[in-house]
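Can't attach files on this board, so I'm pasting raw text. These are the components:
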Amino acid sequence: MVATRLVRRTGFWLLLGASLAFLLFPLVWMALGSFKTQVDFMAYPPKWRFSPTLANYAKVLEGSDFLRYALNSLIIAVGSTLLSLLVGTPAAYGIARFRQTRLGMLLLSARMAPGIAFLIPWFILFSKLRMIDTYPAVMLTHMVVVLPLVVWVLVGFFEEVPVELEEAGLIDGCTRLGVLRRIALPLARPGIVATAILGIISSWNNFIFSLVIAGNTTRTLPVAIFNFVSYDSLNWGGLTAASTIITLPVLVMAFFVQKHIVRGLTFGALKG
Amino acid sequence: MLRSPRPIIATLIALLGASLLWMSARPSPVTAQGTFDWKRFNGKQIRFLVNSHDWTNEIIRPALPEFEQLTGIKVAWEIFPEDQFRQKLAVEMVSGSGSVDGFMSLTSWDGLRFLKAGWYEPIEKYVKNPALTSPQFLFEDFFPNTRQIATVNGQLIGVPLYPEVELLYYRKDVFKAKNLAVPQTMEEWEEAAKKLTDKANNFYGFVSRGKRSAAVYTLAPFIFNFGGQWLDKDGQPQLTTPAAVKGLDLYGRMLREYGPPGVVNVHTYEVVDLMSQGRVAMASDSSNWVSSFENPAKSKVAGQLGYARIPRGPAGSHTPLISWAISVSAQSKNKEAAWYFIQWATSRDMVLRQAKAKIPVARESAWKSHEFQSSLPKEWLAMFQAALPDGYPNQANPVVVAVPETRDAIGAAIVAVIEGQPARDAAEKAQKAVAEIIKKTQ
Amino acid sequence: MSTLLTSGRLATSAPARPRGAAVERWIDRNLRWLLPGPAVATMFLLMVFPLVYTAYLSLHEWYASSVLGPRFIGLQNYVQLFARDERFWPALVTTLVFTVGSVTFTVTLGLGIAHLLVRAFPGRGLARTLMLLPMIATPVAMALVWMTMMSPTIGVLNWLLSLVGLPPSAWVSSPKSVIAALLLVETWMWTPMTTLICLAGLAALPGEPFESARVDGASSWQVFWHVTLPLLRATLVIAALFRTIDALKVFDIVYVMTEGGPGFASETLNLYVFQTSFKYLNLGYASALIVVFFTVIAAASLLLIRVRRTAW
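---
Top answer:
Structure tokens for the assembled complex are below.
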């Protein structure tokens, strides 16, 4: 009896360990590698003990406008998320309160369309408006990904605001709009914060839209990392240092919202 | 009242002599005053989209403040690695927004398409205009066949930057250790690659590009040396001629048998890396990587490389002769200011700097300069000069309008042969695809 | 409820003032249209209009770099696509193979890991957060890191293979192994998502079926097969749905790691469309490809949604 339990327990921890090892290995490898010198990195079999260096980070941060690209990523992420929240919060409330599921379905279908389906017309439009390589243009394109995400996650949060509170407000003579402003929004605020973080992560990671619509002024980190690869293809130290810098902010943000991520990614569809 | 004129004359002569001495001692031209007004477009802002290269990164970018000081023109110098650069440039020029004032182009690749799209601003009229071109510019200083490369359908569309042929790079030390002579014919070449491959020690006899599209350039000499051409005089592809099939077969076989693992992902940058890290005995690629190879900071084999012409076939030894050029965009709203930048960037002084950095130059004065001749390996200089007259201008790939698509189709055939498919089959597939592409787009 | 009422936070509005009241009432009456208005307008502008334009452009011939404008050619692009395009069908097959592989691996693995994480144990919170990371990390950056790990000569993955006695793999450098290599990266990146979905599903399962099964003496495997799986069917379909849509659209990792190569071995539909649009500048034809591509995704999604409805 005890033996089988022990076997089960060991089995559990082994499996868990193996799963986490699989999932975390590339991240650990990336972090380790960012401290290796070129010579150490090129060694085979791979070196696990080596004297660490900060040279890769120094090179990435100094020479190549990296901080400027990081700032671009941040501006665009925050901008597109704010815009999406501005427009999406009322919509989410409406879907939650008025049961506008068809509208919700429409937003879900936005996920089905491949990004490239929009890129040609956007590209033509933004070119004609002289908006290529401007922050507003890139932010707008990111909204296509962030807005549906924002709406679906917020629908879930608004559905959790007890209807009775709102009805009490109505009884007291508040308008529906006032109820939204004074009851629903404050109660949903933690949800809004979580949603904002999810939106920022989503925009930060975006590649294809920035590749085509952004230019030198608005280049974001995922696009910038290409420069590393092609010109200096075996500079693995620089590559892993750059990758670490790019992914670190979103990984940290994830810690704060891990509870809410399932909502964002499944668009609450689990509830049916 | 004048007594003897002699003291006065003496003083005048002295003054004249002093002022002559003083004038000749002044620093010379890039900052010249005189009749040419460098500050004519003071305050303008221009934007250039360029390909990542030692020239754009190490020569021009650090010198931009000098240009701004000279002319008062602000330059946004945007550098992208080649594949992204092409996409970026196409995207911007198609938009017609005029946001790009100048760009680089590889005339063998972009020439015909850009000309037909009306993207090049013909610069002959700028070069000939003394109000717009400094007297120090001296376009005649450029080698005639480089000026030819920058001329598409009779129009001068840019200033050539760094002419390239293809060369064979080899490890002198390894050859000596194995007592091998430098291969002169293509058969000898394959033999040498075989003898030099030591898979157990992760050392390979030969590497060249295997990546779809990029590999077309390094396949070219194989086809030419057996007597083949990309297109016939009617502009139809010639990929299934015996010469082309032979060339494709040999190229694919050499990379398959004697090349490093993963060769189908090898672009020119990886060729340079593999050679610089000492992992291969021979490599064939653009002549102009010599500056990287001889840079001890980047290359482990600096000083140990030999340079040779691509081994000859029955039809001799012919490689593509190409050059990137820098041009003014026809959509630019600041064409003259862009021209000012181009003539500064390709002026004698700037090109001399390029020569000092061991990047091949298109200007004869810079080529013959002491700095260039003494800083580059003698063997490289000799081989380059020998290969130059035999080079086929702009023939890095079929000279058509839809070059990227054509290169992808031929590149797919190269990858197929490297992976073991018979060359005949791969060539036929590519021939069909390219004929179709030409039909759709010419 | 009473706290709110007595806390004074909820300001009761005084009886309606004469001016502005009409506006307020109008807003209230039409709130259900006004609320989603801006969002719908945004989506319309950013999405619906471009899609319609793309469909319209698909009926034209237009090379962006030519001086001529778009030329109407009816359905010729589609004829070319289905009858004469030698890259379309392989790209479609590659995309479908990739998608089936991705869904199978991520959902299976996700279900397994969800089982590990569903019951409490010390450190579970940390484990759940760590488990998320591959999905959050920037895909392009991680794809490049995987490239370094997959180097055929000095990559750490081949070293790991050698430790267990397996021969080295060419990973993305060979047409034979490139899809498998890409699937490895894709599985790694998106298993966290399926794990989360399955976790939510598992956590919501009622306890009685499990208890009665155990009382009946069923083994763990039997419980899983006959109790868990049927109950989880809806959840699994959701996971499959989202993964299918995303896998059909895969772009970042393929573009960064192989650009569709070697040759065209890993060219998915999305990548083919991208090359046609922004490398070959053949915008008319690309638009037709996009319409077909979107149809494929919509069809697959609708199929799965229907399966889900019947799963209830």
